[in-house]
Specification:
9 helices, about 25% strand, 5-stranded antiparallel sheet, disordered N terminus, about 30% helix, alpha+beta, about 290 residues, 3-stranded antiparallel sheet, globular
Length: about 290
């Protein structure tokens, strides 16, 4: 339970104002902000919703995004279908991308590790990321303050790490941290299934994004608490996701055999993302430390 919750919420609601300044943005009409919809003229990078089909341990995910970015807004659009074996899941990582102009804010994501075989039959790791984001329409831009007024729908992007991480490190000039969690294979499997079920739910029952109450980090916390009840108590570090990695560390969700400053240093993959930008072992190279 949050202490002084009302005062803290007021503080959080002021943050979008400080970030948005006085910029003019196009707003949806009132009817469009009354009921969320999956039927709008979406920006290409959000045009296709992922769908997961379950058949025993086999999960086929449609519309896994794997864009090749020339610039942030100029890219080769690519959606793929990928098959995942739940019996081969090995773990899950927590990704944090701090905002440049406010380090207490960040975008957060999950990456799931699966064991696969290379062409020679040798085992190797393959990763798929899930990012909860606003689903922008064509010509629409994000505004934190409009994010509390039912301006945007919430979407989950299932994507190759090359898409989500390289987009941020090179084209948004952002830092990215990959924190391995302590979740074992079974808990990682439960979390993956839980996330995929929510993805399917959003495909038939869309929701509005909310800058404070229904965003990238609150979505992750909800999933974690659904597979491990009350594992992540709700506090200001959820509302200020730039602090979420330290909070996860304090809760014992990350490696605590070293200090958090040392862990944070090791988990910064920004330079590695540039160094191995075109590597066919990109995700594994990022975890070389």
């Amino acid at each position: 339970m949050l202490h002084t919750k009302s005062n803290l919420l007021q503080l959080i609601l002021l943050i979008p104002l400080s970030l948005s300044g006085c910029q003019s943005v196009t707003q949806n009409d009132l009817p469009d902000r009354t009921r969320p919809s999956n039927n709008r003229e979406w920006a290409p990078q959000f045009s296709q919703l992922p769908i997961a089909e379950f058949e025993g341990n086999r999960v086929t995910v449609s519309n896994v995004r794997n864009n090749n970015y020339i610039t942030e807004n100029d890219f080769i659009l690519d959606y793929e279908d990928r098959v995942f074996d739940l019996a081969k899941i090995r773990g899950v990582d927590f990704l944090v991308c701090p905002f440049q102009n406010a380090e207490y804010l960040a975008h957060t994501m999950l990456s799931f590790e699966f064991e696969v075989e290379d062409p020679d039959g040798n085992p190797r790791s393959e990763f798929v990321s899930v990012s909860s984001e606003i689903r922008t329409e064509k010509g629409e831009e994000y505004s934190p303050i409009l994010g509390i007024t039912n301006q945007f729908e919430l979407t989950y992007v299932v994507a190759d790490e090359k898409d989500l991480i390289r987009l941020r490190t090179r084209h948004r000039n952002a830092e990215v941290y990959i924190y391995p969690t302590i979740a074992d294979a079974e808990k990682s499997k439960e979390l993956f299934v839980n996330v995929m079920k929510r993805i399917n739910q959003l495909a038939v029952k869309p929701e509005f994004y909310h800058t404070v109450l229904n965003n990238c980090t609150t979505s992750i916390v909800k999933h974690v608490n659904e597979v491990s009840p009350n594992r992540v108590p709700y506090n200001y570090s959820v509302l200020l996701p730039g602090l979420s990695a330290k909070y996860a560390y304090d809760l014992g969700l990350l490696d605590r055999t070293i200090s958090f400053p040392e862990l944070k240093k090791r988990c910064n993959v920004t330079e590695l993302s540039e160094q191995f930008y075109d590597s066919d072992q990109y995700s594994n190279r990022l975890r070389g430390r």
